[in-house]
Amino acid sequence: MSDEQSSVVTLKVRVSPEFREKIVNTAKQNNRSMNQEIVARLEDSFSPNSKQPIYLPENSAKDLNTILSLSFGTIIKNLILNDVPLEVISRSFPDSQVFKEIIDMFKDLKKNEEN
User: Fold this and answer.
1) SS3 category, 93
2) Cα Rg of the chain, angstroms
């Protein structure tokens, strides 16, 4: 037995026929064997720079959205309180409705604080 063969173990995994078909199709698209596809995906999932998408349950995704909105809200609020012009703040965030709403929510904050 060669050194390479002795450093590899066989692992049996049970999957549904539909899941197996996904692996087969993806392996073909990536010009890999099924084994190479599975190993590449598993190795990538352990990498700190993994490019695999993160799947969150719907509730977690909503919670994450709330946390991010609050975090960006805090950042925007602090920028406004430190007299950063609204034009600069607007250009610093992606052109999305969420950021526009957060900026609108805080844009009069400095005026209210002075009163």
Assistant:
1) coil
2) 24
Q: Of 61, 85, 77, give the one whose Cα is nearest residue 112.
A: 77
Amino acid at 34: M
pTM of the model: 0.42
Q: Which amino acid is at 81?
A: L
CB-CB neighbours of 107 under 10 Å: 14
- Residue 69 buriedness (CB in 10 A; 0-12 / 13-18 / 19+): middle
Model confidence pLDDT, tens digit, residues 36-83: 999 998 888 787 776 666 666 666 666 777 777 778 778 888 888 888
Contact 64, 54 (CB under 8 A): no
CB under 8 A, 24+ apart: contacts of 94-102? 98/69, 98/72, 99/72, 102/69, 102/72, 102/73, 102/76
Distance CA 59, CA 89 (A): 30
